[in-house]
Amino acid sequence: QVQLVESGGGLVQAGASLRLSCAASERAFNNYAMAWFRQTPEKEREFVGSLRWSRTYLADSVKDRFTISRDNAKNTLFLQMNSLKPEDTAVYYCVVGIKWGRGTQVTVSS
């Protein structure tokens, strides 16, 4: 069963950038659909974006600021987040296949 470890979260000011990483334990990493979600205590879990083969899809709220990519050689999924806003504050989760990571906290101060 694939294991996922997210990293790269932190506390930044509005306008800053962060890159989240999601390292997977399984070599068949690139055979799975992958996605990022985020959640705050006040909201339901929100879809951020997905990557399947070479096709990406990003939610309207982030599509002009975030990008998703992967490094198959390192079994790692990335979420590059630019021009961060306070409303991007959340715990970010990566999903590979049906496996969820534990999440990484992103906090954006105004």
Describe the structure.
By secondary structure, the protein is mainly β. The chain has strands spanning 4-7, 10-13, 18-24, 34-39, 46-52, 55-58, 66-71, 76-81, 90-96, 99-100, 104-109. Strands 2, 4, 5, 6, 9, 10 and 11 form a seven-stranded mixed beta sheet that branches. Strands 1-3-8-7 form a four-stranded antiparallel beta sheet, with no helix packed on it. It is globular, with a radius of gyration of 13 Å. The chain starts with a strand and ends with a strand. The model has no long low-confidence stretch (mean pLDDT 93).
Largest sheet: 7 strands, mixed
How many β-strands, per DSSP?
11
The gross shape turns out to be globular
Question: First CA to last CA: what distance?
Answer: 40 Å
- Reading the helices and strands in chain order gives EEEEEEEEEEE
Report strand %: over 45%
Query: What are the segments in which pLDDT stays under 50 over at least 5 consecutive residues?
Result: none
**Quaternary status of these chains?**
single chain
User: How many alpha or pi helices?
Assistant: 0
Mean pLDDT: 93
The helix-and-strand class reads: mainly beta
Helix content percent band: under 10%
Alpha carbon gyration radius: 13 Å
Q: How would you summarize this macromolecular structure in one to three sentences?
A:
With 110 residues, the protein is mainly β. The chain contains no helices and eleven strands.
SSE topology sketch:
Layout: E1 4-7, E2 10-13, E3 18-24, E4 34-39, E5 46-52, E6 55-58, E7 66-71, E8 76-81, E9 90-96, E10 99-100, E11 104-109
Parallel strand pairs: 2-11
Antiparallel strand pairs: 1-3, 3-8, 4-5, 4-9, 5-6, 7-8, 9-10, 9-11
